[in-house]
Amino acid sequence: QVQLVESGGGLVQPGGSLRLSCAASGSIFPIYVMGWYRQAPGKRRELVAAIRSGGITNYADSVKGRFTISRDNAKNTVYLQMNSLKPEDTAVYYCNAVDLGNPIGYWGQGTQVTVSS
Fold first, then answer.
1. Residue 22 main-chain phi, psi, to 5 deg
2. What is the DSSP track for the chain?
3. CA torsion sign, 102 to 104 to 105 to 110?
4. I want to staple 53 with a disulfide (CB 3.0 to 4.6 A). Which of 7, 32, 33, 39 is the partner?
């Protein structure tokens, strides 16, 4: 059973920064993709950023140039550095991880990010 634990969310003013962390544990197989999704009230869940084990990344257009995803493969931990935060970034951020035992992925419990003055 793979467990994902997110941390680092909170309340920040527009223009501020936060760093989210997600640690995966319990995987029998290598986790080859990890990513972050977010869901705001009344909105559908959307991909924010993803990173493969080899370091290839993918970002939503809305966060390019502001967010950076990184990964520590040895620790099965993914990070999301969020800079120049905007009110529209407010959402619950969910960590996702994919291994060969569960191609649809595992999900964390989510962490709230609120950007407000």
1. -145, 120
2. --EEEEE--EEE-TT--EEEEEEEE--SS-EEEEEEEEE-TTS--EEEEEEETTS-EEE-TTTTTTEEEEEEGGGTEEEEEE-S--GGG-EEEEEEEEETTEEEEEE---EEEEE--
3. negative
4. 32
- Take residue 40 and report the two structure tokens written for it: 């705001």
Nearest to 94 by CA among 22, 44, 36, 43: 36
- Do you know the residue count of the chain? 117
pLDDT value at residue 17: 98
Position 66, amino acid: R
Query: What is the rounded distance in angstroms from the CA atom of residue 45 to the CA atom of residue 76?
Result: 23
- pLDDT per residue as tens digits for the range 22-78: 999 998 888 889 999 999 999 999 999 999 988 999 999 999 999 999 999 888 899
Alpha-carbon distances of 101 from 106, 108, 116, rounded to whole Å: 10, 17, 40
Pairing verdict, β 31-39 and 91-99: antiparallel
Q: Report which residue type is found at 90.
A: T
The region that residue 89 occupies, defined by phi over 0 for left and psi between -120 and 50 for alpha, beta otherwise, is: alpha
